[in-house]
Amino acid sequence: MMGYLIPWNINTMSIFSLTLELYEEGGCTHPGYQMEDIIALIRWSLSIRRLCTIRVIPVATLSGPTSGHFYANEWYEWALQIRRWTIGAAEVFHYFAVKAPSLPISSTIAFSAKFIFYYVIMLCIGDLYGAISTIWTLMMNLYGNEFIDVSMVSAHLFLRISISSLILSYLEMACFFILHKWAEKSFPDGRRDDTTLWRSFFHWIGSMPTILVYCLIELYAFLEVSVRGKSVCSHSASNKDQLVA
Asked: What residue ranges are annotated as transmembrane (predicted)?
């Protein structure tokens, strides 16, 4: 997330530092209000009439994940948090669309394009499209002209591309696991992640199905906020009662 949100000046990732003057001009902020970090960034950008530039602060932080009393409850809290983030992102974009006329057109287009790419295409539509297109290709192989004129597209080639994309996705996930192990060197007090190799392997195998479920929950949340509107916009934090040191 940091690799996209910070370089693209979309989200300060909750922890940030700025001048007191800009903080006051932007109407301060409310740390207990979910998605307020992006809304505050938009307010600060409005106060200077251009997009604020976000730079990484190399400081170690502790970010607690969602938690529950048992596994099923953890899954529920995880899904609930995805729904919160997605609906919050939709609300943020609505806020930005209302305030956009006060920004230069170049800043408006740049922020909109990056925001839509990350929250809509990358987190929601991209992986769903990959999965659906692969299934559709298999159906074309099985049923042929009943669905589409297969002379227009090479189903075997498209299937190979889909499989190659899946392999690349798993390689990308493997890089994240490697980076995690490498980052242990910077953990305070010499702490280490005690997750076993076999469990890490299981997490790696389950990473893509997990992302696919994430996308489905996001799609549901987008549809929900489109139909129900402001009534589903909640800004309560996720449950972290069961986290232990």
From this structure: 116-138, 158-180, 201-223
Domain count, the chain: 1
**Which structure tokens are listed for 15?**
């922890």
User: CA nearest 1: which of 46, 48, 63, 49?
Assistant: 63
Q: How does pLDDT run along the chain (245 residues), one tens digit per residue?
A: 667 788 888 887 767 778 888 777 777 777 666 677 788 888 888 888 888 888 887 776 666 666 777 778 888 888 888 888 888 888 889 889 998 888 889 889 989 999 999 888 888 888 888 788 777 777 776 665 555 555 555 667 777 777 888 888 899 889 988 888 887 777 777 777 788 888 889 999 998 899 899 999 999 999 998 888 877 777 665 655 655 55
Supply φ then ψ for residue 34, to 5 degrees.
-60, 140
- Residue 54 resides in a domain: no
**Sign of the CA dihedral with 18 first, then 20, 23, and 26 last:** negative
Is 108 among the domain residues?
yes
Asked, for residue 124, whether it belongs to a domain, the answer is yes
Query: What is the domain range of residue 226?
Result: 68-232
Q: Is residue 237 part of a domain?
A: no
